[in-house]
UniProtKB/TrEMBL annotation:
This is DNase I-like protein. InterPro entries: Endo/exonu/phosph_ase_sf, Endo/exonuclease/phosphatase. It comes from Mytilinidion resinicola. SUPFAM superfamilies: DNase I-like (SSF56219). It comes from the Eukaryota. Pfam families: Exo_endo_phos_2. Residues 107-207 form the Endonuclease/exonuclease/phosphatase domain. One of its GO terms (molecular function) is catalytic activity.
């Protein structure tokens, strides 16, 4: 068993409800050496052929899925991590928290899908107010702002301003490279898939990049 992983690798991906995209992503994670510890998915594929509302499983990871037909976030946690060293809380179909208890700092990983027009940003302060843990916030924010989108973003959104206020009050830093392409369709692209970390983790983050598909 991997009791205290020296490196925490988190991969975040919105698979846009595609079974094939999600399957290929999971297969890539299975082949990786070393395998990432956490896979944070937004808009997972839904298995509508069974009574149980779930999504794809894979042999090296436990699937953490709320089981709701409306679920738009799920997490895969590598089975190499002792089951007693993590716990999960499903706050809503769009927000899930994985807590890691590794004997060092407790780390809470919040995976969010922020839908439009009525997002769930307002649910974050209560979660990020836990001073007994370090925090990682990852997900598809669906929000545009120069603070992460760079100078090409002209119009900002009220929810984006609210997110900045929440992140600032929580003492979190943007880990995503400002202005990097995280979503594209045709000739349009934007920076809406974001990662934020609290100070202890910010100091220890070695990279936060966008992988080629």
């Amino acid at each position: 068993m991997l009791e205290q992983p020296s490196t925490l690798t988190i991969i975040q991906y919105n698979v846009n409800k595609s079974r094939e995209t999600q399957r290929e992503f999971l297969e890539k994670a299975e082949r990786a050496q070393p395998q990432p510890l956490v896979l944070a998915i937004q808009e997972p594929w839904k298995n509508t052929q069974q009574q149980e509302h779930t999504t794809l499983r894979t042999k090296s990871y436990y699937l953490l899925h709320g089981g709701s037909p409306h679920t738009r976030t799920c997490i895969y946690i590598n089975k190499n991590l002792d089951i007693n060293q993590w716990s999960v809380e499903h706050h809503s179909p769009d927000l899930i928290t994985l807590s890691l208890h590794t004997g060092r700092e407790d780390i809470q990983i919040h995976n969010i899908y922020n839908p439009k027009p009525n997002g769930i940003i307002a649910a974050l302060p209560l979660l990020l107010n836990n001073n007994n843990a370090e925090h990682v916030l990852v997900g598809d924010m669906n929000l545009h702002h120069p603070s992460w989108g760079g100078i090409r973003v002209i119009n900002t959104e009220e929810q984006a301003e609210e997110l900045i206020r929440i992140i600032t009050e929580a003492g979190m830093d943007l880990a995503t490279e400002k202005g990097i392409e995280t979503w594209a369709r045709g000739t349009s692209w934007s920076t809406i898939d974001l990662t934020f970390t609290t100070g202890w983790l910010t100091e220890r983050t070695t990279s936060c990049t966008v992988q080629e598909e």
